[in-house]
């Protein structure tokens, strides 16, 4: 996170996993004054393609369906399909 010039604006540079971790930590803190930040990150988070979800599963073979959904904000069907696709590739 860095300031944009001399303004009061900030720039956050992070990958999908880092953003998911930030959202998780902000939500766990249960600080009402930070819910706007969590909501903004959830809105701005890009949707992952099926191939990106498969790559995440390949890097974390023991990942559960719920963990995959939490990290990628995908649907249950998308998570199950990615897990099945990786299992059939092996």
Overview of the structural elements:
It is built from 5 helices and 2 strands, in the order E-E-H-H-H-H-H. The protein is mainly alpha-helical and 90 residues long. The protein starts with a strand and ends with a helix. Helix 1 packs antiparallel against helix 2 (35-44) and helix 4 packs across helix 5 (76-89). The chain folds into 2 domains: 1-46, no CATH class; 48-90. A two-stranded antiparallel ribbon has the order 1-2. It is elongated.
Outline the fold blueprint:
Layout: E1 2-3, E2 10-11, H1 16-29, H2 35-44, H3 50-59, H4 65-72, H5 76-89
Antiparallel strand pairs: 1-2
State the main characteristics.
62% helix, 90 residues, two-stranded antiparallel sheet, 2 strands, mainly alpha
Provide a short characterization of the protein structure:
The chain is mainly alpha-helical.
Q: What is the β-strand count?
A: 2
How many DSSP helices? 5
Number of domains: 2
**Overall helicity:** 55-70%
Profile the largest sheet.
2 strands, antiparallel
What strand order characterises the main sheet? 1-2
Question: What is the percentage of strand-forming residues?
Answer: under 5%
Average pLDDT: 84
The structure class reads mainly alpha
The coarse silhouette is elongated
Low-confidence stretches: none
User: Secondary-structure element order, as H and E?
Assistant: EEHHHHH
The N- and C-terminal alpha carbons lie at a distance of: 39 Å
Radius of gyration over all CA atoms, rounded: 16 Å
